[in-house]
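To close the chapter, one final illustration. This time we ask the reader to focus less on the individual chains and more on the assembly as a whole: which components sit near each other, and how the overall shape emerges from the parts.
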Amino acid sequence: MEMLLNTFLMASEGGLEIKLLEIAIHMLNLVILITFLKMLVYKPTLNFINKRKKQFEDMIDENKQLTAEAERIKSSSAEIISQARQNAEFISLEATKEAERKGKAILSEAKEKSDALVERTKKDMQNEKLRIEQEVKQQVVELAVELASKVLEREVTQVDNDKIIDSCLEGWSKT
Amino acid sequence: MRIIKVQSAMPLKQLQMKKIEEHFRRGKIEEVQFEYIINKSLLGGITVTDGNTVYDSSLQGKINTIKQILK
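The assembled structure is written out below.
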């Protein structure tokens, strides 16, 4: 400032005809202009820029939040899918075990029934065999008796008959 | 009067009849009459029916007994 003043003084003494008043007026104008520019252009522009900057920052933040939310949902979905897979595997395994168990039970029951049927059939066959044996034996007896009767009818003589009767009477006489 | 039936496959001799009558008259108070019947199905021997009692000494009777045992 002191140098500037010295310069003005030297210039006026040297005959440059620099008018301090005009300089001051110009400087004042400049200041006023700068002030108005600041008020009307710079500050609004700056506000606009800041506002836009804030908007962009908000958008970035919102984007980050949405991204984080998406990641969270993704991981949650992955976990749910994993859990669902595990459940499905468990259910499948249990169903397989149940099917095996039922299959074994059915086989066991079928075997029991089959064994019982075989046993019953064996008994029936044995009974039938015994029945047939008995029937054959009876028929043999009947045949033997009939043959004996036929033979006796033909072969027994009066003498034989008398012997039989005398033997009977002797037995009665002893009682 | 009591009637006793005597069946035989062949005609009986007098001695045989006498012995039969003596045996079955023993111990009886009432009068007993004997009826002699020829029954060839007996094959041999005799059967005596005294009321509800049958004394079977016939061959057929013995055959029937054997038949029952063999059953």
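Chain B has a mean pLDDT of 90. Chain B has two helices and four strands. With these observations in hand, you are ready for the problems at the end of the chapter.
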